């Protein structure tokens, strides 16, 4: 009888240890106690949390948050959009802690490179950190219209947004106008010497008609008046990925790609929307191009895969609350506080989380 009990005890212990091992190897994620288990941070839903928002843009961050993003200040009457947080299906994101973020990034440079959606995320992160340590000295420097840096001198940290909507070159020709060079990057020196790079490009590639910011594409010496915009996007991302693989040392620099932020400019748009959508979402243009590009790189690049969670947040846009009048409806950018705060909680989980 005792022998059978001993055998049973061995089997139970073996099962427990195998379960622990299985949990440990299935992938890193961040649960309530920081344990490792299988969790896709980008699969989940938006839930109301009464402890959100993390800041009041007008009161706490008026020097950081742009006029077009502070929707409450511009008259938005509903408030629920402030209190949603992203909840992964199989775990919880760690709550953002600005002091820990500063300590873990002491002496480092963090740079967002991209368009106004990158600016949206940069403003959110700067405000989240500042609100966490309100008594810490800070400086906001605007070196040019395309370069802004939020400094925390006590920690030696620089958080910069560098405006670059295409990542590849745009040249101006007196005769032909603006030429978007899909296979050329000459501005990359600005990206060197940075500890964490967060790249983004997509929205400018979707522009048509008068909103286009180029007149010709160029590949090699060939000028092209027009081509499929997603084909052009793929060529440009391949150029960017080759530049990163050749110029960035992964032992010195972490590289992330801010995934495609969904807009809601088509159909019924975002006007009057006050709640997130639920359920499955359709494929979104450009996402497969991004994923395939990153998959083929030698440099490890983490994708902040925000597309699905932004597809669901039709309520999160400024809509008519930008200060530009009721005739202007913004269904591309995001209110602050709001959805970009969750992007930065995902960034926090990736960089610091466990």
UniProtKB/TrEMBL annotation:
List residues traversing the bilayer. Answer: none
Task: Establish whether keyword Cell membrane is in the entry.
Answer: no
This entry carries the following GO cellular component terms, namely: Golgi apparatus; membrane
Name of protein: Trichome birefringence-like N-terminal domain-containing protein
As for family, the record states: Belongs to the PC-esterase family. TBL subfamily.
**One matching Pfam family:** PMR5N
Locate the Trichome birefringence-like N-terminal domain: which residues? 38-92
Q: Superkingdom of this entry's organism?
A: Eukaryota
- State the InterPro entries in the record: TBL, TBL_C, TBL_N
GO MF annotations, alphabetized: O-acetyltransferase activity
Q: Which residues form the signal peptide?
A: 1-27
* Keyword annotations from UniProtKB, A to Z: Membrane, Signal, Signal-anchor, Transmembrane, Transmembrane helix
Compartments, record wording? Membrane
Per UniProt, residues of the Trichome birefringence-like C-terminal domain are 93-349
| Membrane-topology descriptor | Single-pass membrane protein
